[in-house]
Write the structure tokens for this entry.
Amino acid sequence: MPSPEDGRITLWFQRKNFASLLHDGVICEGGMTKIFTAHRVKDYASWKDKYDADADRRQAAGFHEGGHFHSPSDHNSFLIVWDSDLPLVDAKASVSAMYSNPDLLALMQEAGVYLEDIRFWVSED
């Protein structure tokens, strides 16, 4: 799975009348931290049941649901937004640790997540 540390994640992010280059998983602006994670799954409804059952893990990491946004052409491809009061560096470390946890990766694979397609970005709002 690509990670911000391997330098392959680059994306232009348009916001507040300026463009920021998002690279290495971080946009520095100041304020509340947001985590954006993109997934592709075999079946969203089946995945969502397992995702909801694992809410305690995200809460313990300091992440709160900000929304799910689906691709208009594929309901099984979507972006999840989490809000956090953690500082940017801590939020990035926390989400990296989550996605490096073998137990979570096994649960995600069982839920139908295409692990090779997971992407995440961390930003201060």
Observations:
- Confidence is low (pLDDT under 50) at residues 1-30.
- The chain has one domain: 31-124.
